[in-house]
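User: My collaborator and I are trying to settle a disagreement about how two of our proteins should look. Neither of us wants to argue from intuition anymore, so we agreed to look at predicted structures for both before our next call. Could you fold the first one, then the second, and keep them clearly separated?

Assistant: That sounds like a sensible way to settle it. I'll keep them separate. The first protein:
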Amino acid sequence: MITVAVLTLSDKGSRGEREDLSGPLIADILKPIGADLKYYEILPDEKDLIKKKLMEYCGKVDLILTTGGTGLTPRDVTPDATSEIIDREVSGIAELMRFEGFKKTRRAALSRAVAGVKANTLIINLPGSPQAVRENLDVILDIIPHAIEKIKGDISECALP
């Protein structure tokens, strides 16, 4: 079982001015890989608060998925907060999401999403829209369990026969 924390980053969502559709969707999409949602919060787009929450959940769960704040507006600070706390970047995850997203829209190139590891926890930034969340998770869902096994110290061979 994979333990998960979901953080929705949205000023409007944190004030109750917008319903969060992406956070609950993430929990549903993860069910087929045996994920268990342990924590779910909606936070404003405040870098220091995001860093604090990421640090709080690192080591408590296997996977933290953020949704929102990956674009280019001045309030989009999720990748910046993530980059400041991770020990190791896993750039291939974000690259894969952008690569596949680019096949649907050229605007995928504007994503600043980051993925990385801190305290044996995999952190992945996802976009804010439900459609983009689904598209991005569909691309990486099958590699998440393997990534978490490796982060936890599995030394078996990675090559597929």
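The second protein, kept apart from the first:
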Amino acid sequence: MRLNHIETSVRENTPRVWRANVDLGQTTLLVGRNATGKSMILTSIHSLSRMIAKKTRFDDANFVARFTDGAGEFEYSVIVRDKLVLSESVTSDGNVVLKRGPDGKGRIKAVAANDDRLDFQIPNNELAVVAKRDLIQHPFLEPLHAWAASTRFYRFNDFKRQFLVVREAGPGEPDPSDYDQSIGLYDHGLKKLGEQFKSTIIDDLTRIGYPTEDVGIMPLEDVKLPPEFGVAALGLYVKESDLGGPTRQLEMSDGMFRALALIIHAAYAELASVPSCIIVDDIGEGLDYERSTALIQLLMERASRKAIQLVMSTNDRFAMNAVPLDVWCGLRRTREGVETVTQKSHPDVFEQFKLTGLNNFDFFKTDFFEAKSANG
């Protein structure tokens, strides 16, 4: 299931209200000046997915999310205030199949019972799409849960070199959606997927400008743990073809480690978990032009191979020039949030700019859409 549209707002009924209304494609690049709301939009999508997947408690929120899948159109809306659900509804192909109010009372379609208006009441601090999940009676909720569980959100700048792992036996697996677990995910991916996983990472690093012979995990000799731990701190290393020895994690540049970590997560996503949506905030930050461009192209190709939705944000000129204008979503500040400028919403603006022969970054730098979008 693919997210086509997201409406979100915070601080409603206050002077600090912020609203966004964004169309999304198979690949979307959010572009805007600092503080226009790029990260807030991506974080909102992530927050909605985590609410549905029960990975976080929800705070105040207003969402309308529209999806498409093989079965047709699907819309989910929810309003939360002070951790209480005020309203919630699900519409499938134009038919309301779930609706509830602030007292937790509502009606839902029950497929096996052949009842389109089955009454229910749940606690008013629970989501109905979670509390009423039932494969037999309410199977139409499953695609929404699959989307939520398989959405991956990464802040490119948050892949830090100090993310270390101590190898120790224990239950559970690393969370592939958690960028704090890049090292553990590599270790787990190698055990689960074998040499294909490792060779994919080596090929991807080489492609983006780090010609690589080997990648793996090794003790971090500079990190001394107390003797009572009884284990060593471990980190990633990369053996580049033109260097005599391995580059250890703590020796990597920020840009190199961020790229390596994201490549690990993206390779695992394709080879193991097949997420429906990958979100990357500030893509390419800290990389030079060639590597930033190559990394973005790599992600776009990987997403297209698996029909994965890819949503990225940037205000970096290298990233902008690497992504075609037809997948851009430009953001403009307004008094109450942001408005968007896309090729779909403002085709004339995009066509006029293309006639200038300038590169993509100039579309952003010269405020081409800022000057003309108000009048369409």
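Some points you might bring to the call about the second protein. The longest strand covers residues 72-81. Residues 2-345 form a domain with the Rossmann fold fold (CATH 3.40.50.300).
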